[in-house]
Design goal:
Layout lengths: L1 H18 L3 E7 L7 E7 L11 E6 L5 E6 L4 E10 L18 E3 L12 H4 L1 E3 L3 E6 L2
Parallel strand pairs: 1-8
Antiparallel strand pairs: 1-4, 2-3, 2-5, 5-6, 5-7
């Protein structure tokens, strides 16, 4: 009995590992200043898009094009919102009428009108290894 339980648990563990073994590779273009940090947020619904991330990461800017591997992200449908915090104050600086003063971008290079794009414009399916290119504006 103990041996069967151990085998079942081991198989479940192997299944969990392989379920999250795919890698999402982000290629970030449009970086003008090699300074600060890229803050990247992942969202999985229209309701939470740009409000509450399900996964996030931060990467120090080291070149004008950044390649960032993201591992451990479960399969699903996501949208990405990101910005380059050039002055290291951990926020996207905005000017008059909330217009961003630092570079930002979205998955699918989606653009909104007078605000961020929608989740629908930015979403992508992540089921196997995938590369996404985002150009900062």
């Amino acid at each position: 009995m103990k041996k069967k339980t151990f085998v079942a648990i081991a198989l479940a563990f192997i299944t969990c590992i392989t379920a999250y073994s795919q890698t999402l590779t982000l290629e970030i273009r449009g970086i003008e200043k090699i300074t600060g940090t890229l803050y990247i947020g992942f969202y999985n619904s229209a309701k939470t898009f740009t409000k509450k991330t399900v996964f996030g990461c931060a990467e120090k800017v080291t070149s004008k094009t950044m390649i960032i591997p993201v591992e451990g992200l479960p399969s699903g449908t996501y949208a990405i919102s990101m910005y380059q915090d050039e002055n290291s104050n951990k926020m996207l600086d905005t000017g008059l009428f909330g217009i961003p003063q630092e570079k930002y971008g979205f998955s699918n290079d989606a653009m909104g009108f007078a605000g961020p794009p929608s989740f629908k414009q930015s979403k992508f399916d992540f089921r196997t290894d995938k590369k996404i290119i985002i150009t900062l504006r």
